[in-house]
Amino acid sequence: MGDRAKPGSTAPGDEVLERQQQKTKTPKLYQVLLLNDDYTTMEFVLSVLEEVFQKSPAEAFRLMMQVHTQGKAPCGIYTYEVAETKVEMLRELARREGFPLQAMIEEG
Question: Where are the domains of the chain?
Fold first, then answer.
């Protein structure tokens, strides 16, 4: 009985080593919504959609019309930091041109 290990115990060197796996967490994504107002021109909205959100002219027109008729339209889905940067760029361009154009970020 002296040399035998007890059931359920391990002798030195018999341990099971577990490999630690790093799990990469997928970042949350957020949607940027462009909001309608009564003063910003359609041309300016088109330029913002093309410049800031890299939309094609046809997609920019479709989204601009959605903002105009439905009050808002999704411009893209990004990580929070990218969404925040896009909204800040939009606000800066609008302020510089004298428009009240706004966008919002919501968890998407």
Answer: 29-107
Cα separation, 51 vs 97, in Å, equals: 15
Kindly state the tokens that stand for 53: 């959100």
3-state SS of the chain is CCCCCCCCCCCCCCCCCCCCCCCCCCCCEEEEEEECCCCCCHHHHHHHHHHCCCCCHHHHHHHHHHHHHHCEEEEEEEEHHHHHHHHHHHHHHHHHHCCCCEEEEEEC
Measured distance CA(76)–CA(79) in Å, rounded: 10
Statement: the pTM of the whole predicted model exceeds 0.90: no
Class of domain 29-107: alpha beta
Distances from the Cα of 20 to the Cα of 17, 26, 28, 33, angstroms: 9, 19, 24, 40
In this structure, the dihedral spanned by the alpha carbons of residues 51, 52, 58 and 64, taken in order and rounded to 10 degrees, is: -120
Q: What is the pLDDT of residues 8-47, one digit of tens each?
A: 556 666 677 677 777 888 999 999 999 999 999 999 999 9
